[in-house]
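Final report, results section. Input specification for complex C-07:
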Amino acid sequence: MANFLPQFHSIKTGCDHIVIAVEDVSDLWPVIKKGFEERLPIKKAFLNNKTRNPVLVDELPAEFILTTDARLRSRFPQEQSLFWFREPYATIVLVTCEDLDEFKNILKPRLKLIFQNDEREWFIVFVSKAPAHNDQATKMAKKVYAKLEVDFSSKKRERCCKLDIHGSDANFWEDLEAKIMECIRNTLDRRIQFYEEEIRKLSEQRFMPIWNFCNFFILKESLAFMFEIAHLHEDALREYDELELCYLETVNVAGKQRDFGGVERGDDQAILLDPEKKSLTQIVQDDSFREFEFRQYLFARQAKLLFKLNRPYEVASRGHSFIISFSKALALHESILPFCMREVWVITACLALVDATSSHFKVGLAAPDIEKEFYRVQGELYTLCRSKLMRLAYLIGYGSELERSPVNSASLSMLPWPKPAVWPSLPSDASSEVLAKEKMILQESLRPKHFGIQRKPLPLEPSVLLREANRRRASLSAGNMFELLDGRPNANDGSGLTSPLPKANAISMSRTFSSPGNFESSIGRPMRLAEIYVAAEHALRNTISDAELSKSLSSVESFEQKYLDLSKGAANNYHHSWWKRHGVVLDGEIAAVYLKNENYDLAAKLYEKVCALYAGEGWQNLLAEVLPNLAECQKILNDQAGYLSSCVRLLSLDKGLFLTKERQAFQSEVVRLAHSEMEHPVPLDVSSLITFSGNPGPPLDLCDGDPGILSVTLWSGFPDNITLESLSLTLTATHNTDEGAKAIKSSDAIVLSPGKNRITLSLPPQRPGSYVLGVLTGQIGQLRFRSHSFSKGGPADTDDFMSYEKPTRPILKVAKPRPLVDLAAAVSSALLINEPQWVGIIVKPIKYSLKGSVLHIDTGPGLRIEAAHGIEIEKHGIGSQNVDNLANPQEENCSPLASEVKRLALQDNKIELPEWTSNINSVLWIPVQAISDELPKGAPAGTAVPLKQSVVDGLRTIALKLEFGVSHNQTFEKTIAVHFTDPFHVSTRIADKCNDGTLLLQVILHSQVKASLIIYDAWLDLQDGFAHTGKGDGRPASRFFPLFVSPKSRAGILFSICLADTPGRGEAKELHPDSILNIRYKISGSRSLGAHSPVAEELKGIDGEDATLTFRSALVLQRPVLDPCLAVGFLSLPSSGLRVGQLVTMEWRVERLKDFEDIAASENHHDEVLYEVNVNSENWMIAGRKRGHVSLSSKQGSRIVISILCLPLVAGYVRPPQLGLPNVDEANITCNPPGPHLVCVLPPALSSSYCVPASA
Amino acid sequence: MIVCVAVVGHQNNPLYIQSFTEADDALKLHHIVHCSLDVVDERVNNPKRSGPTLNETYLGVLYPTENYKVYGYLTNTKVKLIMVTTDLDVRDADVRNFYRGFHAAYVNAVSNPFHVPGKKITSKTFAEKVSTIVKSFG
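Structure output:
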């Protein structure tokens, strides 16, 4: 059957559509041909596929062929069954007949003959030629057609249809199409069944020795082909898939060693998309096909069908895996294939596939994810092609042109060298080429990297080429001798290449001569690198038949162009796919080419993308590889901002990635630029390089208005010290976001050493609130920089690429305004007036240090500071200690003067408080003296003493102003009041009037201070008109002294005096208007309580002198009026009593007791008396004149009653109105009752006007 | 032979990368691991395509090339464990087994209270454990 292969091939090429046979019985075809052919191709046909499921075929091409045509004749039956797919799928029998007899006698037997023993699908088209107007003919035609139907149609199947040439029968064509389709469908089903049966039979023998793949293939492909012409592409594809599986299963059955193929000229060009490139007859091998061509053929068929199915993405993805697997197959047979055949084939295959699929691919053809996948595969194909091209380029000595980047290293260094049976040897006439290559090797030098970075280049070769090539050659001649040739670790180091070679050469020469083989001398001698290149180039020239590829490898420039195209193709496709990283990395490779070709602009743009990718994901090792290149581009482009930021990024990379020398180079670049004139100064972000943080521990706590010193830790990532011209740091309030961040500046230059630096910044007073660190800005030279990076107390984690997080811990807290200190007077009770006294001022710090504070003291009027005595300060007693300080007992104990008193000096009314008082309560004792010129006056006993008056008199103020705080920014002002008083309040009364005119004057001493008073002596300097009785000097008996007067108690002293004649009236009165009480006393009191010994006395006391104080008080003594002139009597009230709201008449009787002559002599109105009613208006309402004159005869005994109408207003015991006589001296009036008295006022009577009688 | 293992954080940042080649070519392995993240991303972002393996941590071969294979493993915390091998015929069960050990070692390493999540793994014990697993592979 394999013999049919050529025939099969020719049939396939000539047959691509369905054939419909036309049996033209009545020579009608020429007439109706046009109408029939207009119907083709058949639209919307339903066909059954292999699994008997209906499939809609949009367009089914077909051809009508007369049975008399040569194409349908003269076929052998065996052929027919084998190539059944080309046989007609339907037979149309065209008949016409106008006579029943003719039909019966001629046509019918002829038709019967045609259909006899025929498995063809047929039907009859009866063509009626009868003109429409000829009824007779029409009728006859109808009759004949009816007869025809009876004879040939069955109930099961209509096999006749009628075409009226002259009529217009639209239904006919539908009918015809339906009948054709029915036939085709049936035929197809039958043929499928037939082929399947055959295939099944054959595949059962698959593992038998008689198995013939060619037969199987013809059957299988026939079936596939049939599906294809029936436009059942899916089914055709499936057949090819099965065929491929079957082939792969059987092709490598052990024992059958076949040729692989691929050794013919032109085989290096992949034919995986062109099934017609090589005829199958050429590749047949025994009973099967050569793998090399046949697999490509199968793939080509599949690809064709897939393209027809509009699935180019599937072609691409299948193609990619096909290339990979086929490449493996090539690798297995590499020893028989031409040198580098595999690489060349892959390159051409990839390119062909990329071209074909991309030309078939239209955007929007498939779902987005399929599209992405398509682009991904395209990218893969380009990448594969690219790496193979690079491998070829390396072999012919373009290795130095290849960027030794990670991506190239990854794709090449793990790709094994080609493994030809023997490495190509140097052609004899190639010496000039060798020289050229050698020159190239010598010229080649690694392009020095920017910043003088030195890296060991990444390998591009899986092993040393020199060794590999020589080994492959030597294995033929001298075994593994060249394993000894380990001279060069890296074949690329061409410079020192010549030195080891002569030696090796010598060895090999001797070996060569001694070897019995008849090899050429060049085989035995190890080749030099240049020779390997030249040999490979020659061998490749033989391998490569593709003109374009050989051109690409013909020169470095054209290779570079090709390389660039492939890289761009790969990158662009990857960009459209999911594999963004692949795309960006390849962009980096493109950039490397641009950089080499001095196209810096494009290179920089691409490098930026790559750097962004690596930096974004923290792949620092990879970043370190490309970032210097970017920096170089930026430097050449004079992109200062970019260059600076690249340098900073380089510096902020992991320290291990660069040598210190290199890092220093980065820094020096930064510093150089910073100090140069920059055209467009831009702020530089050094967040990754300089980070900052507050100090660990609690935040700095400041009170409102206080400046402070903020200590901040800076981490410098620079390898060397770097000088910052200025530095400022913003503080951001955490609660108050609308208020802009405030910057605090460090004015002077700061030198940052590598690593941790602690800097302090002086902090002006801030508003209350808590603050976090914001942004660090500063200047290096002319360059402004800023850093947002907050490090958490450690060096910036370089792998922490996403840490721009805001610090949350406040660094500064400024408290809301609160009292920080309090000043208070230490005493509450009065001090002695006119004596130097200690006034205590308690200085009470409230959780605030008063270090260095200054107190301004300003005394008010009537008070002066006795500065001469010095000022004392002591710790405030425990008893009054405030709780806050108690909580800190250690501090208490530490204070140097826990209970001692320290003296301070007052300067310009200012005192500096000692340091130990800064945190504790202290009392400042200031000696003051309140000055009062007035002599205290005693008061007669019984009268209400206007104490208030004396309190106000004794009040003095001290204005205090405390300046404190870190820089005396805080002030506290307070005016405190201090009371001063006399030690005694003196009141007098006449205790007794003796018959002999002696008056006992009782002097009551009322102690007014909270201190014990000791009276040593008391005497009375009497005014004129009085005299001491007896011969004494007015002193009480001395044995009464000393007299102790407890605080707030009273003491009395009796003086006996008598009236004396008034000497010369005028002058004496002026001399002694008042009597003076002198008291010599001592005071013993605590200054912390109140009055105490005067300051000066204390000093004297130390000297042992007796120091007593003298208190003087004026007393007013009046001569007693022994015989009153007038008597005022309060007349009794009505017995019914007083009641609120009830008028009552008050009456007083005024009676003259004696003649008023001597007094009246000086007055005109001697017969009138002025009266006045004193009344408390809250208690009484008065009707009538309160004040007026009444006439009273000046004779003794004359009397008058003054009555006045009063209305009590309040109930209770109240003082009744009093009648006074203002013109008459009180001493001349005798009153009844003598003193103030009370009357009872009843509440108002119950009102009954609103009451309802009980009986009612 | 395993030439490289890597732990990649959930933000695709390298947490640990160790190559086991003699040559000084770690960088190309960095590149391979980094690029293989494309495939992990693709699988994670296209649950349709990854199909039944959606809920599985083991991702299988990410990246078959002619010369090496890259395997992936995605933990629940989106940490990727990547392995590069030049062995082209590896049994899937072996790789799964390898990953079980590798994952356990990783979990132990990050359970260290002094390890900061998301930071590079510097534990020597982890490195030793990983190299033991790598040596015993295959």
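Chain B is about 40% helix and 25% strand. Chain B has a mean pLDDT of 86. This concludes the modelling results for the funded period.
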